[in-house]
Amino acid sequence: MFEYFRPTLQAPSLDLISVEQLVRDGIRGLIIDLDNTMTPWNDVNVGPKVAEWFIRVKDAGIQACVVSNNKKRQRVAVVAERVGIPFVFRATKPRRKAFKAGMDLLGTGQKDTAVIGDQLFTDILGGNRLGLYTILVTPINDHEFIGTRLMRRVEKLLVWMMKHFTSVKPFSPKIQ
Ligand SMILES: [Mg+2]
C-alpha cells in the first residue's frame, strides 16, 4: 500500500516541472490540482511564472485541466479560465471517478496522463491507484482548510512510517 503514496516525480512548484521531461515521458494530458498547487488557498491569482508555464505546456502540445475538490464552482472556473483550460469542481479526489472525469475532458488515458498536486492523500494516492504518472509539488503556502491541515499531520506520519518501516522511499528525487 505504501507504493500508492510515492509520486513518480517531485517538484518545488508547478512552474518548475520540466515540460521537456513530460514530453519525453510521453505525457499528453495533465490533471492539475487547484488549491496550493496553482494558486494559494482561496486566492484566484495565478502568478506570472505559473501563467508562463501553462503557455509552455500548450506549446508542447500537452492538454491540461483543473480537477479540484473545491466546492465553489465560481472560484475554480475563474482560475481555470485565466489559464484557458477546462475544469472539474467538487471532484471527490482520491476517488477514481474524479480522475476519470479529468481524462474524459482531456481525451487522454492511463498511459499518457499525469496528475499534479500538493497532497499525498488526494492527488498522489488517487492518481497512483489508477496507474497514472504522479507529480507532488510543495504547497504554495501553509494557510489552508482545517481539514487539510489535519491531513498534513497524517501525511507527515505516513512519510515517517515509510522511512522507518518500509523499503518504499517516500519521495522521488526532487527536480532542481
Ligand atoms: Mg491542493
Automatic annotation (TrEMBL):
The keyword Cytoplasm does not apply. One of its GO terms (molecular function) is phosphatidylglycerophosphatase activity. This is Hydrolase, HAD subfamily IIIA. Coiled coil: none annotated. It comes from Desulfosporosinus metallidurans. Gene3D superfamilies: HAD superfamily/HAD-like. Transmembrane segments: none annotated. Keywords: Hydrolase. It comes from the Bacteria.
